[in-house]
Each structure stands twice: as C-alpha cells, then as structure tokens.
C-alpha cells in the first residue's frame, strides 16, 4: 500500500481577523447601507474568524486586471509552494533528488509552463521528474491529488511522490461584482499551500498512514453548481444553493460504497476528514452521513482559523490528524466543480 510520509500545511504572512477583510469590501461593493449590512451579515455567518493573505489587504486595490493578478500569483505563489515543499521533504527525511513524481494543483492561477516547472527547478528536483500539473478540479483537488498519487504509486511501488497544492484565492477578488456568489466567496476563501510526500509499497519509510483505497464520483446535471466563470475580468466565482442538495442525494451512497469495498461501514471510521467548504457544506456532510456533532470538529476549526483554501483546505484538515494513534481509520473527502467528489480511505500506522 502507498504510504503518506509527511504533510506540511503553510499559510502566507498576512493574517487578518474576518472583520478586517470585510470592511474594505463593504466600502467597495456596497452602494447603500442595506447592501453593506448584507455583506457584514453574510461574512459573519461563514464561520470564518481569521484568514491569511499573500499581500497586505490594502494592496489588493491596486490589482489592475487579470494579467496583473496572474503575475502576482506566480510572484507570491512560488515562494509559498517552495517553502511548503521543502518542509514536507525535511519532515519525510528525503532529498529533492529522491522525488520521482510531482503532482501540482491549483485553480487560482494559470500558466504554460505551469508553476510546477519553476517549483521543480527551485527545489532541485531531477530533470527526469515526472510532472502532473492540474487545473480545474477546484476544492476537490487536494483529495483527488492523494487518490491519483496512490494510483501512480501502485504501478510504481519503489517510487517517491510529492503532492503540492497552492491556492491564492484572494487574487481572484472582484471589486465591482456585488453578486451573492462574490459576497459569499469574499467572506469565505483564504490563501494557503500544502505539500505531502508519499512512498510506494516497496519504499522503506516511516509512514504517517497507509492509503487503503479511494473512490471518485461525478454527479450528473451539476456543471453550473460551483466553479469559476473565466473571462477578461479574471476568475468570477460561480456558486449556487444546489450544492447541499447534491450532497444529500449522493454522498452517503458513495461513501458507503468505498467502505463496503474494504469490508467496512461508517461505524468503522474513527476520523472524518472533510473539506471545510463552508457552514452549509459541512452541515450537509454531517446530515447526509448521520454524523455526531463532534465528528467534523477539525474541519470546523480549520474553517474558522484559515477559511476555505480550495484544494488545500482538506489537506490542512489532514495535517491536524498527522499524529493520530496507529490503527485508526480515517475517511478524507472533498467536493468541487463538476460537481465531483473524491474520497480516500486511510489507516494510521
């Protein structure tokens, strides 16, 4: 089985209380006191208490257009990705030259070559490192990255892989968009990165956990439920109230199918590692799976302390479980555009 060897979450340096981010947005997005009150109420209901940004909050007013924002993504994103990756390798006790696969995911910046080229060169990875950059999976990509790395290493059990998630959601800000989706998004999303090291079954390592299996699900007639509308203005959030209903209709079936494939049911799961997509998403997860009030406590805490970090958020939740006792079973899952869900079954070692 594939081993998870280390997980390194990282936040950028500018940390703000929720209200410190809300008020500049109120000034820009509201034309009257009624709209201002709506923004404050929605931001206050997100469950987010703090968020970290890659720039001082006042600097965001100087972003001119999508081109400028995308340049800032590369400028600020590369050092964050390098720092997270270096920490993950140090924690795993491996050298950059040992890395055989680099899986890189983001949905908040674009480029060709993708940023993982600069990351590989900055880290000193071998020239024959196998790169798998991903764009478009959104919030599900952290869980999907673990599942796809496991797929790769099952076919190459002597190899070592690194998964890097980098999301600078703050750079997608739309100062002139007073839509409900933008108001919710500006109250929910933060910046962050994560790096994880994995080893194939034949690689001698000290694992945190073993990957028992995974399952993917793509829900029909839901392509416009969540995602980005992309244009000259940049990345504009697409978010509808349909997401909780999709969770209610589909999630339990897919979770149960994954567990059944390994001779388990929900009572065997010790740790529920859920993507902290927002209060309504976490409540829908809990309701659909009949979870106890404290089962998603770690996800709620991560939401409060850092916000929704898109693909990196569930990896920050996973990091909180890095020292769980051996033998415990964890089920990690996330939801993103598609609408798609990725689920990973883990056993701590």
Features:
alpha+beta, 38% helix, two-stranded antiparallel ribbon, globular, 349 residues, nine-stranded mixed sheet, 10 helices, 13 strands, single chain, 26% strand
Overview of this structure, please?
- There is one protein chain.
- With 349 residues, the protein is of the alpha+beta class.
- The chain has helices at residues 18-29, 33-44, 66-92, 115-123, 141-155, 180-188, 242-260, 279-289, 297-306, 313-319, and strands spanning 3-10, 14-17, 50-53, 101-106, 130-135, 160-168, 191-199, 209-218, 226-231, 234-239, 271-274, 329-336, 340-348.
- A 9-stranded mixed β-sheet has the order 5-4-6-7-1-8-13-12-11, sandwiched between helices. A two-stranded antiparallel sheet has the order 2-3.
- Helix 4 links the parallel strand 4 (101-106) and strand 5 (130-135).
- Helix 1 runs antiparallel to helix 2, helix 2 crosses helix 6 (180-188) and helix 9 crosses helix 10 (313-319).
- It starts with a strand and ends with a strand.
